[in-house]
Specification:
This protein has 590 residues and is α/β, with parallel strands linked by helices. It folds into three domains: 3-23 and 164-263, 3-Layer(bba) Sandwich (Glucose Oxidase, domain 1); 38-148, Enzyme I, Chain A, domain 2 (Orthogonal Bundle), CATH 1.10.274; 269-587, TIM Barrel (Alpha-Beta Barrel), CATH 3.20.20. It is 47% helix and 13% strand. The strands form two sheets. It has an eight-stranded mixed β-sheet with strand order 1-8-7-3-4-5-6-2. The protein has an eight-stranded parallel β-sheet with strand order 15-14-13-12-11-10-9-16. The chain starts with a strand and ends with a helix. The chain binds phosphoenolpyruvate and magnesium ion. Magnesium ion (MG) is lined by residues 410, 449, 470, 472-473.
Length: 590
Amino acid sequence: MSFQVFGIPVSRGVAIGRAVLVASSRVDVAHYFVAAAEVETEFARLLKARDAVTQELQDLKTDLPPDAPHELDALLDVHLLLLNDEALVDAARQWIQERHYNAEWALSAQLEVLARQFDEMEDEYLRERKADLEQVVERVLSALAHAQDKGAPGAAAVVARDFAGEDPLLLVAADIAPADMIQFKRSVFQGFITDIGGKTSHTAIVARSMDIPAVVGTREASRLIRQDDWVIIDGDAGTVIVNPSPIVLEEYRFRQRQSELERARLARLRHTPAITLDGQRIELHANIELPGDTGPALEAGATGVGLFRSEFLFMNRNGELPSEDEQFEAYRAAVEAMRGMPVTIRTVDVGADKPLDRMSVNELRHEHVLNPSMGLRAIRWSLAEPSMFRQQLRAIYRASAFGHVKLLLPMVAHLSEIRQVQEAIRRVKQQLDDAGQAYGLVELGVMVEVPAAALMLPLLLRHVDFISIGTNDLIQYTLAIDRADEAVAHLYDPWHPAVLHLLASSISQARAAGKGVSVCGEMAGDALFTDLLLGMGLNCFSMHPSQIPSVKQRVLRADTQRLAAAIPKILESEEPGRTALEVLAQQRLH
Ligand code: PEP
Ligand code: MG
């Protein structure tokens, strides 16, 4: 039966493929294809792990002390029964043989099928056996991990090159932690659907950086969609169509081809400088998460990196932080790749919906911190961990010897934070001088993402070289909307008059003070806002590389003076969104 699920569109385009349901807790299970010749070996690997766990459970049974409660013995029997039921490992064989899934993936895919059947059972006792099944699968997964050869693929994002699965795969999960998303950068999935999340939640941001269609905040997609269902993701409308009819499918395939053609057309702008009709040169920079993202940035024609979210280097490390040398290598790689163009490295911004480990937003919200967005996040965390912070500063300064590095501080709200950072920088430079290590000139900037920073900008500007406006957080904190909470996503409004006033005044004050200003939040990459920001006087935009061509197209058709004339009317309007679309369109037509 065909049906639709509605959510929040976060990454554009159409994806058509089969649903792969993954429990949030198992998103980090390795997902890769095995070669045709390896299918039987892969199944044998699964059988071996099953046998090892059978043995383990039997040993546990034998070793039970005589006074152990009878229930424990019975429980082990249940686990042995589930483990050896043909609905589990034998059925997983089908996923390996027909789809070439690796053993871990096949097992967790089958678990999702069975878990759904358990959920639908009338009998409460039987329904509760789902937890036992999950425990059994957990044991087999860990047996597989132990047996894993050192060199074999283990990460979530490995694709065997000799198997081009016929059907594209779309990931469906209740939630995906940013730390897991980053593992999917080169993954087998061509689209994402999650129950949780908002337009600028970090999961959505990573999906956008991967340039694949995604819909978040669907609330129940992971409950309604079944393993292997055919699914269409409409990343523009925020719609998910499950088991579409042939006619709907054909319509979307047509749209998919159209958008590929449009992309190819825009890609031709790559070498065209971004200069407006009235001769203003506009910098279009890239937001990156890992040094390897400089490749797509250069391909898209970025003229610098406006935001290197360094916290992604700190994730997926089982609590261990990257050493100074490791960080230095990562920053140097990005700086060298950009060949003299500026690379703006933001100091680590963990906290809020970016925990260091792979906690999902839901876990974080409910179990750990009272209000993570307002807690020990970003620069606050760095200043609370001085030795970690100095290590990061040293790594960044050392990388500055290899190119043009700018240092950006996230979530600044107090002058004292800048002063403390300046003191830390002074000490770091002294240490590098003492060690005879080279470093270059590094400009210091702050992100304007807390209303306090925007409102006290004249004071902050005296102490920094540039500012970068993080609209994702600026909107979140101005409107008191948790950016990761789908329940209030409809109130998250970039066109809100308060947001527009803070944006316009920040841009004009920075320009008047002769300081650099850019916007690196998601507004910068959405072509809907390009005219508005140009009219406000912005000349540096930083965004995902895939967004550069469409923003550049807008820039090439813009006359900044005409757009500037329209801004007062927008700022005075009670409905700035509507007014902006009307008056800015007029400025373009004339
Ligand atoms: C922002 O807040 O706009 C921003 C760019 O930072 P992040 O999205 O990483 O919080
Ligand atoms: Mg931010």
